[in-house]
Amino acid sequence: MGNERTISRVEPDAMALRALAHAQRLRMLGLLRMEGPATATSLAERLGLNSGATSYHLRQLARHGFIEEDAARGNARDRWWRASHESTVTRDDVTDEVALDAVAAFGQAALNWQIHQMQRAMDRFTQLSPEWRGASTASDFTIPLTADAARELTDRLMAVLWEAKQNSPPLGEPLSEGVELVSYLLHVFPLPPEDGADK
């Protein structure tokens, strides 16, 4: 393993999760994490927003500790922002109704963004090199499991992904030749019945 590094993570409270469960804020945080520091103006251009709305969303993200001002890059005219952490995690043992609703709202926002990313990836699939087509997949596995067995398998898969992340350079740094940002989207859930199926 040798090059393992610590991944900075944030575990937001219910109010912070609610603030993050907004499509544009989620995208802004993702861009700051993946591409590094940026100004409100440059983010507004990337996202097709006006700079006033972008500045407002950035202030909300900063208020809840997701991003911070990058004082080393800023000047009197331009404020630069950077992500405060590499990853957002939520607790799975939440029982409080308000907190559970916030986790669900964040999960829905994250899912919408992941579907968007996956669609863009599929649109680009035929333009990829044979090597990158071979390294890509859109697979699903349906397996009969108990909740305990599903949790154990999910934990094992997550451990492999966290290990790979810990052995990679931090996001936002320039990529070496041949290296791409690769997204693994892991969705685990008890399969709901099809619409109209007997409950």
Structure notes:
With 199 residues, the chain is mainly alpha-helical. It has a single domain, classed as Arc Repressor Mutant, subunit A. The protein is built from seven helices and five strands. It has helices at 14-20, 23-35, 40-47, 51-63, 97-124, 130-135, 147-166; strands spanning 9-10, 38-39, 67-69, 80-83, 87-88. A three-stranded antiparallel beta sheet has the order 2-4-3. Strands 1-5 form a two-stranded parallel ribbon. α2 packs across α4 (51-63) and α3 (40-47) crosses α4 (51-63). The radius of gyration is 19 Å and the shape is globular. The N and C termini lie far apart (47 Å). The mean pLDDT is 91. InterPro entries: ArsR-like_HTH (IPR011991), HTH_ArsR_DNA-bd_dom (IPR001845), HTH_MetalResp_TranReg (IPR051081), WH-like_DNA-bd_sf (IPR036388), WH_DNA-bd_sf (IPR036390). Residues 15-97 form the HTH arsR-type domain. Keywords: DNA-binding, Transcription, Transcription regulation. This is Helix-turn-helix domain-containing protein.
Quick overview of this protein structure:
The chain has helices at 14-20, 23-35, 40-47, 51-63, 97-124, 130-135, 147-166; strands at residues 9-10, 38-39, 67-69, 80-83, 87-88. It is mainly alpha-helical.
Brief descriptors of the model:
mainly alpha, Arc Repressor Mutant, subunit A, three-stranded antiparallel beta sheet, two-stranded parallel sheet, 7 helices, globular, WH-like_DNA-bd_sf, transcription, transcription regulation, DNA-binding
